[in-house]
Write a structure and sequence with these properties.
mainly alpha; 9 helices; about 80% helix; about 0% strand; globular; DedA_domain
Length: about 200
């Protein structure tokens, strides 16, 4: 897996990251978290630029979920029910996401990124529900920001041990995010502040 991802990145670079996330969020069963954690690892060893990597991932995620939203607006529930299987949205995933969407509403657009199988459906349901694009954008793009920051940040912090993320997540599941997300955000704030201070001292 690591070698395959590295070869793809060497060939397509940041555009490849963008397209991979667009397709992954739009519905194709691609290993999004694996990719982003691996990208974080590559930034830690200087193979990729951290800021460009995050930007490519965020824009790809935002673009992918926007495509899903507009498809939901234009084509509606009958299309998703009839053809969802062709874009890997099974009826089971659809039912589960519908129940969660009714319970948590717009917040599922934010939290759904962290639930494999759910994040691919939330934007379609938001479009079908005729949620305004402004409200959709607020929750969906904020979720994309934190989702990308979490996994890229984990990969950057863990370095060569990046693969342990999946062992831990499979063991503890989404509950781990309650601990991991604040840690990653604190680290991100510290990193950006440190970079800013280093740039200031370099100029002096």
């Amino acid at each position: 897996m690591e070698q395959t991802l590295f070869e793809l990145l060497q060939q397509y670079g940041y555009i490849g990251i963008f397209l991979f996330l667009v397709l992954g969020i739009a519905g194709l069963p691609l290993p999004d978290e694996i990719l982003m954690t691996f990208l974080g690892y590559l930034t830690s060893i200087g193979q990729l630029n951290l800021y460009l990597t995050f930007l490519s991932s965020f824009l790809g995620s935002a673009c992918g979920i926007s495509i899903s939203y507009f498809l939901g607006v234009r084509l509606g529930y009958p299309f998703l029910k009839r053809y969802g299987g062709k874009i890997f949205i099974t009826r089971r995933r659809l039912r589960i996401t519908q129940l969660l969407f009714r319970k948590y509403g717009n917040w599922l657009l934010f939290a759904g990124y962290f639930i494999p199988g759910v994040r691919h459906v939330t934007a379609y349901l938001a479009g079908i529900s005729k949620i305004t694009f402004a409200r959709f954008s607020l929750f969906a793009y904020t979720g994309a920001f934190f989702w990308c920051a979490t996994f890229i940040g984990l990969g950057h912090m863990l370095g060569a041990n990046w693969e342990m993320v999946f062992d831990v997540m499979h063991k503890y599941g989404a509950r781990l995010l309650v601990i991991v997300l604040p840690v990653v955000l604190i680290w991100l704030f510290w990193y950006l502040r440190n970079q800013s201070n280093n740039s200031y001292h370099t100029k002096q």
